[in-house]
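On to my pick:
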Amino acid sequence: LEGKGYAVLKYYFYPWRYFYRHKVRMIDEAIKGMRFKSLIDFGSGPGILADNWSKYSDKVLLTDKHDRVQYADGAVCASVMEFVDLKETFKLLHSKVNFIVIASPMKTIWSRIYFKLTGDKEIRHSHTDIINSMCRYFSINYYRSWLGLYFCVRGYRR
């Protein structure tokens, strides 16, 4: 969806950009102090976050869910896992990266209110479905949530 400008048109402008930017700050916190040779921005769409991820990696690979996924040290999945086939995507990423960070909306009363206010009616996987699927392929060593709206999780390949 982001490749079609979905998130750009809906979430990068006032008043919603504050929430979207906080999600990016959560990812920054999860990978602060780390350095990678290559990092996949999985579900990158037009790549508007690539400059941000470049402070952690020598090379940022922009990849949408239909692109061929290259091998890399790690992957950042910002607001994409809620829309993909979880089993297929985690299996693919498990075969390509050692490290993963995911940040997505949570499925709570607060996020339902938030999405209603934004007019967003997209069907999403819940944060518990994403985390449970992730645990089959990656060991989680970091978890944060924010206001019942977003969560961020980091893990290493099992």
User: Anything to note?
Assistant: The longest helix spans residues 17-31. Residues 81 and 134 are 10 Å apart (CA to CA). The beta strands are 36-42, 57-63, 74-78, 99-105, 138-146, 150-157.
